[in-house]
Model the fold of this input.
Amino acid sequence: MIEQMNRQQREDLYEVKLRFFTNITHEFCTPLTLINGPCEKILSYCHSDTYIHKYASMIQQNALKLNALILELIEFRRLETGNKLLNIKRVPVAEQMRSIAESFTELAESQELDYRLQIDENIFWNTDVSCLNKIVNNLISNAFKYTPEKGIIKVELTIKEELLCIRISNSGKGIKEVDLPKIFDRYKILDNFEVQNKKGISPRNGLGLAICHSMVNLLNGQIRVSSVPNEMTTFEVLLPSMEITIENTDTKITEVPASVLDEHLVELKNTPTEYDKNKQIIMIIDDDPSMLWFVTEIFVDSYNVISLSSAEEALQQLAVQLPDLIISDVMMPGMDGMSFAKRIKSDKVLSHIPLILLSALNDIDEQTRGIESGAEAYITKPFNVEYLENVVKRLLQRGEELKEYYRSVLSAFELEDGHFLHKEDKSFFEKMIAVIDSHVQDTDLSVELLSNSLGYSTRQFYRKLKNITEKTPADIIREYRLTIVERLLLTTQLSIEEIMDRTGFSNRGTFYKVFAQKFGMTPRQYRSHKEMDIKPVSADDLKTNK
Done:
């Protein structure tokens, strides 16, 4: 009874530790971005000398290593909680393993190792390819960590007693016999977490081996280790052939990060700039002051930047000023980034604004949720600065391309070939054109009539339209009418007065003036100039104004 209680207590403590480390890894993503991002800026700065470049590269390299460790811990959590789903299929194991092993060849040459591959050809096996890749990659990486220069590493693959046999051996110091049972002890993994990477190396019972052990068990296999100190250490994996399954969706557990303790942060001041009416506006939202500062610094030289610490502040700002693009963190107190995205994308006045979500949650389910919430892009931390800059540049460029399209003559009434960032924009424009078309004969057609018909106030209507095209409502109405005029001139025998009546022009002088501005001649001259190329139809053939 006491033994059972102790076992349960140990299991509970293990689960608490595992949950803690998984939670805290999400918090590592933000400071990692603040390490990796500035390193990229330093390394790309043309005036950086070799000294700066060397140490910035070292910082960046270790930031990437820490990121890899975070991903390993998240993977370990998924395995331990039973949330790793298998996708068993026929795998060309020999080809797959040779590809992985050969990727270490350059490293072996640089360390002058005797690197031997003994992989039987044409071996196919029913297994999970992602698990296989992880097992092989981790075991070979582990061998390289503990093999001295000019040492030996052997990678073997064969069939042994109807089991797939993978053997990774390396020379070196080896493992004491008393320590062999601890190699795959799941409780020791977290007990020793704080000493990992001490003196620049990871212990044998690190996360990589823990993941291997869990994945081998998941595949109903066995993994064992044998070692002769100061000679050879061998890891052997035996895997049975499994029943082929249908494809499964690999689901990851999303952990809620632990609360961040208050701390005294170094005061960060953004580069002072003045508002430039010729620059586009970017709104940046992040509750972390350091991240908010860093992302702002990336764009402050090229854009007008509005920096805000919460989604609620952003909504208040959007009521008085519309940016050209928004960058928002996902995990924030109060309204999070997903909720914020849904809020603005459901607002007819705001839905056209491109939105980028930045997040420490890097599993595919979260990325899918981000896109489904309406965001144009979902970028995980730590992000590549150049990639973020290019995404922003492309989204803003796309917005300008849309505006340029609507500056064209046909944009006011031909939407079939147009492309919108959001279906809301297309729907808005099509409804507006439909209203204009139904009232095209009405000389009193006005902005007020358009906005009321579409359910907007006049101010909201102007703001919505401005973010799609530079044209005013009056410009669009006039261009639409003139397009109908041109069509009627070329396809009917209607008189000029009849055409004016059908298109809502009541003043002959105004009509001739705007027509000449658009076509460079009078309506009669235009008809005469084009009539040789057009076959006219009678007025009776016209059922509509189109």
Q: What stands out?
A: The two ends are 88 Å apart (CA to CA). The first strand starts at residue 88 and ends at 91. The longest helix spans residues 2-44.
